[in-house]
Here is the input.
Amino acid sequence: MNRAINFPRIAPLPDLLISQIAAGEVVERPASVLKELLENSLDAGSTAITVQLEEGGVKLMRVSDDGCGIAKEDLALALTRHATSKIHSLADLEGVASMGFRGEALASVASVARLTLTSRALGASHAWKLKTESGANPEPAALMAGTVVEMRELYYNTPARRKFLKSESTEYGHCAEYLKRIALAHPEVAFTLTHNGRAALHLARSKLPERIRAILGEDFVNQARSVQVEAGSLALSGLIVDPTFAGQSREHQYAFVNGRFVRDKVLMHAIREVYRDVLHGSRQPSLCLFLAIDPTAVDVNVHPAKTEVRFRDSRAIHQFVFHALQRALAQPLRETPETPPSETIIRRDAQPDLDAHRRAAAMPQRQPGLGIRETTVNAYLQFTREASGQAAQNTTASTLRLSALPEFPDDQATDAPPPLGYALAQLHGIYILAQNADGLVLVDMHAAHERILYEKLKTALDERAMSAQKLLIPAVFSASTLEIAAVETHAAALAELGFELSQAGPDELALRAVPRLLQGGDPVKLTRALLAELEEHGLSQLITARRNELLATMACHGAVRARRQLTPPEMNALLRQMEATERSGQCNHGRPTWTALSLSELDKLFLRGR
Here is the structure.
């Protein structure tokens, strides 16, 4: 038996309940209120904004600005839903450039808190104050200029929602974070924040580099690379952290579109793609980027909190951001300008300059008829002979030939050394110790050579110039049935990659050629790794989605291995190739390839000058 359900008749909701429902979308916590009030102050043309909080903003939030103010006759309208001075037509909405535009913020806040609005319009003889109590009328008030919005007792009339608020320190942390986001996008505005009567933050009016340094810290600026790219109506500027200094959290990821902080999927995907093969493990990049775009090409009216946007041509935005950031991260060391422009901030190491006499003392001294590098080579050879005797000479026969690393003539060695300097010695067959103008450079030779090969393989494959090197004696090795089948099926694709394989027996394969760039590696291990990738993923997926992973595997197996002794010319050739290679600061797995210790840092270690 079906039971009839009797609903009451349809009736319009009361205005207060409508506002409280809307407040659930706009006012999630005190920080949400602060965001809306700060945006209103910015739209009013303020140059100085003061924020006072008590108990994390729950008990009291007072925002004062020096903007244009609100006229007496508009005070009551300012507290009405869908009343605004920022848009008047659909055309205004489609090209909105102001921070706020919905006309819901003050009305939503007034429905869940006690609100007082005090404002003095430009040219008015005095200010006017309006409280949200029922039937209240504007009354004269004292205020020099601008507007003061005072909110007390958030959720006093909806105690169930107040229970969902976190601790005082947590709510204050969210408020401080919102203020920092807005302050980053508006360095021309001064901000002051106090909590429970104590000054917490003061940001004077400044330019963008100084504002970023004040909020994100000196380390962020020193570890970042600058971005400044324009194309038509698009412009991208800001800082992205060098992958070597990436952290474990997304705390310092700030992306702005036309001065509005956003968490956009298109932008974040482009950023992740740029960092794909230069970040180690689960590390996250830090960044502070500002995208300027024609307001008509982006829809900011897709989320109540305005933290999401929709681009008219998201693919074009993705490609623009991806290539702009890729160029910034891929810049070889040899092309990095020593001194950044005044409006940009970037140096990878950001080491302090040395005095001229100290810089000269830091470099190996020339001998008559010898270049700097030759002097270093002779000293190194003498050291190895004395330390290891005949055993050191016996390593010559097993020294790896780095055919991909060309020799550089001695005229490259000048009084102005290259960024990575010149090799001094090899440590435990793993690290190269080099000396540059600033101090000591340590290089992981396997990781560095791996990146060099990886970038060369990508270029060769893109240009269809993957040349093969015939083996004098074919390498015959045992193979499974699946491996033999993979060779027969994908023979043409393997040849395009530089491999020549054929079946030599019922369960054997013969390797007759390998890519010329990888001829120094173990050919059998390299081939087995490639066949394993083919067996697991198939050719089509390898050539598209996993193309770079395949090339990274090839580079890893082809790179110089640890515990292999290199001659000083080979070490210097490796350093010069690093300086000319894109993304040479990290290997294919995101590990750093080199690090540096300046003379000032070494002095601190040994307490010199104290």
Summary: Residues 336-414 have pLDDT under 50 and may be disordered. The longest strand covers residues 468-478. The radius of gyration is 32 Å.
